[in-house]
């Protein structure tokens, strides 16, 4: 740890600039129109894929860039920093680890090169259910082996990008909870091809922000037995060990949001003249923006520490969780400072502040709510009794 630096390498700085430049070709109007229609940013995601950025974490032998978590974090941060919404494509990065670490050679050879070129998309991650929510081990979707297939039945809730994805990583129960030693046993992960999958109904949900989210209904959907990732019954552990990557990458989404809010607020506060002077000259306007900037910078340090530990193969659970919490809260505070600085214009669609405000709010709640992050810190870092 003593030699850990928090400055970016020349290559990382170049990556940051290149991603930002690509994103800037998609102006605020692009995102605003899609948001109003709740449509997927197809052109943007295609261009990002063609440029190779979404294959950052795929090893070169499977056609990817073979970069680390820090580079993946930079890519997502810059999408949000530019005014876009990385939620359209972040899952491909944060679920990649489960496939890389636990997928079979056959699965990796079959899918990864096609994901790298964009021929296939792996953007859907099916965990949450209506009756279990954050309590994942209580999920009720079952996958029962019948010969060379698994038959899937159950419901999933808030599963994003299913209609824009070819593949889905699915968590289902393969052994009933009353037949396992621990409730975390008996869950399995599947990498399934959802193109035209019979027995899967997808019902889009209109959410507060443009997020391509759905309710899913599996009714005797049959998937090939070789869709199973790793060992049957060990899926919960596989999902858990992908969580640090998810936390670091979602923190990066929030950092990008926060930076966008701060730049937007500073620019507006400098040019809006009321009572004969720029509103930014008033401490009531300036200080919340300055405070938000400090919080974003502090969260950035924690995110960078987490990403560097992750890339060094060292434990990063506490840092990844703290980064997710700190960045989500800091982005939310930056969003509020930005709205306040804009007065009534903060609520007008054409300023984009209200859109980013809605988008930034999500990360206090999903993919994991900040209460459960605090429960993790309280229990696993500070050694206090389990609170749930
Ligand atoms: C836009 C959007 C996209 C999403 N995309 C996906 C996706 O692609 N795939 C997927 O699997 N899921 C997805 N989710 C689901 C998301 O991960 C869940 O909403 C989240 O995990 C919480 O589950 P829940 O909504 O059922 O809330 P619940 O578990 O019912 O919790 C409700 C609230 O109660 C509080 N709470 C619950 N338990 C505790 C406790 N023990 N201590 C303190 N507070 C507690 C929390 O603050 C929480 O916000 C998405 C959600 C949204 C909103």
Account of the 3D structure:
- This protein has 388 residues and is α+β, with helices and mostly antiparallel strands.
- The protein has helices at residues 10-24, 28-37, 42-50, 69-81, 90-94, 96-102, 105-117, 235-240, 243-271, 283-311, 317-342, 353-361, 370-381, and strands at residues 122-126, 142-146, 149-160, 167-173, 187-193, 200-205, 213-224, 228-229, 273-274, 277-278.
Index terms:
10 strands; binds flavin-adenine dinucleotide; 13 helices; 47% helix; alpha+beta; 388 residues
Give the gist of this structure.
With 388 residues, this protein is of the alpha+beta class. It contains 13 helices and ten strands.
The sequence of SSEs as H and E is HHHHHHHEEEEEEEEHHEEHHHH
Mean pLDDT: 97
Total number of strands = 10
Helix content: 40-55%
**Beta-strand content:** 15-25%
The neighbouring-strand order within the major sheet is 1-4-5-8
Cα-to-Cα separation, first versus last residue: 33 Å
Q: Main sheet, how many strands, which sense, barrel?
A: 4 strands, mixed
Radius of gyration: 21 Å
Named once each, the bound ligands are: flavin-adenine dinucleotide
